[in-house]
Amino acid sequence: MRRTGINLGERSPDNRRTAMNMWTTEEANNVLFKALAALSTVWAVLVALLIVTYASRAAQSWPKPPNRGHEPPVAPYWVPYFQHIFSFLWDPNGTYQSSKNKYPNTPYTLLMMGTKFHIFSSKTTVAHVFSRSRAFSFEPVLSSMMENGVNLPEVDRPMFQVTEGSNRFVASNHNIWLKYLTGKRLDDIMAVYMKNFHHVLEEHMDLQSREWISVDFHELMRRLIFEASLVTFFGTRIQYYWADIWEDWKLFNDATYFGVRSNWAYYLQPRAGRARERMLQAFEKWADIDPEEWVSEGVWNETWGIKMNHERELLGRDYGFSLRGRSCLHASFLFVIVTNAAPMATWFATCASNSPAALARYRKEASTLLFPGTSGSFHELGFDVIALKKNQYIQGLWKESLRLGSASAAARVVMEDCELEGYKLKKGSVILLPVQLMHFDESVFPEAKSLLPERWMVKDDQDEAEMERQRLQNQSLRSFGGGTGLCSGRFVAEQEIINVVSTMLLLFEIEFDVGWKEFKLNPRSIGVMSPAKPVTARLRRRIYES
Ligand code: HEM
Ligand SMILES: *[C@@H]1O[C@H](CO)[C@@H](O)[C@H](O)[C@H]1NC(C)=O
Ligand SMILES: *[C@@H]1O[C@H](CO)[C@@H](O)[C@H](O)[C@H]1NC(C)=O
Ligand SMILES: *[C@@H]1O[C@H](CO)[C@@H](O)[C@H](O)[C@H]1NC(C)=O
Questions:
Q1: What is the pLDDT of residues 369-422, one digit of tens each?
Q2: Domain of 421?
Q3: Does residue 295 have its Cβ closer than 6 Å to ligand 2?
Q4: Same domain, 169 and 120
């Protein structure tokens, strides 16, 4: 019988040693052999388990015809218990697309740790789901993001739960967003925003120099958007309570891809967890004030930020939120205003510069919309923003950038057993509407992978067929979600990014290190995708003509 190094009692006397002795080479080889044998057995069992799982899932995963009382078919997966979760988190787009190839004409289901996520992507179903906010509820999704992403305290969680089919706090909060983030107030806020943007730009760039400088372009845009947003929405005061504001923000924001799904992300990445804690402590100080102190003629006070956030603070107090709970409300708002706008600014600028001719066209269109009196050496550009947004080329480019750069997937919880597209859905399962499946639908967007602003541009002599084509395109562009969850900041985003990018492209010559064709986006995103790798660009102050 062979001995193992562990089984000391079986040693023969001639070979006796204490456990401290080195093993002989032969023994060591034996042990190694056994260990390898054991490992390969474990490995074989694992592989067999994966194969058996996949095979048994594949056998049950054939596309099923509708109207037979079935649930949508579950796409095959390799790993029991976790099911699709790893492939979904690693490459959501790839996971949706490859399953869609298997089920080209029907919905299908991804399973993640026992929860069913039914994937739908037909435009009519998407519109149907968005318009039925009671049957397909957004609130549980919001509530889970508040719990995971900003660790909302237990005591405040009921505020986000639906009772008797509605939620008064969430509805009132929504009304405040609507009131401030549309119409005249929005224009006033955006005027403040652009003023702040120019201050921030002055701080980070030498606007007098005409030398070429090399920058990490996404890092630059991210920082400009973050700082301009922070001081516009929360005033200068927050900076005094939050020392490493920029570093902390990046740590927190980078962790949210996993973090909005599971609070574990912040324990597994303790630096991000500590950064989040410092942010929440800063917002506690920001919120812990005498409400009478906020005074302003208009919509903004430099110290306090925009009036909207003051109103949200009062609303939180009215509903009996804890101080930490209110801090979570403010931090989550900071998150939604920056997290997608920053990568969108980078991406929109990249799309606008996709070729020298495209960039020249952008500059030409934008420079005609500068207010008269903007002089060539002065850097605070004033655009007629309304006209800038309406400009056919710029608007077409904006929509096309949204189409190609979005990776959001609206999620809605099924509140009662029901049927959709002829398939049964059970209460408690989740409907997932991935925009990439809609945005790359060749029947709506021919040459879907190409950037074609023209497809959105309205011609003067447009016929009925063309109108219909554009109507379908409009319906399929879902970067901002829809229904109850529809992004309240979509007008802010459009105005902010078009204005900021027009400013940057008129103020600077820009040369990217990688060409348009090699530019890759990171599929792991909860909204707009960031570049997959750092984007080096050379910038030089240009003297524009107006
Ligand atoms: C290009 C930039 C942006 C994109 C693509 C985007 C996208 C989204 C999406 C997909 C949702 C969830 C919708 C759903 O599940 O149906 C959302 C929610 C939201 N967004 Fe945006 N967003 C952007 C910028 C902004 C900005 C700049 C603001 C604020 C000024 C903002 C404020 C909000 C708010 C408050 C919500 C939550 C709505 C609610 O809870 O009822 N977003 N956004
Ligand atoms: C902003 O608020 C501060 C503190 O209450 C106040 O002293 C200041 O006058 C306000 N600024 C404006 C422009 O109203
Ligand atoms: C598409 O949406 C835009 C607004 O983004 C609107 O101005 C246009 O009229 C819509 N086109 C059609 C054909 O519905
Ligand atoms: C998403 O998937 C499509 C189809 O497989 C692919 O062409 C596209 O490049 C992917 N996008 C990203 C950002 O990975």
A1: 988 766 555 667 888 999 999 999 999 999 999 999 999 999 999 999 999 999
A2: 42-128+409-439
A3: yes
A4: no
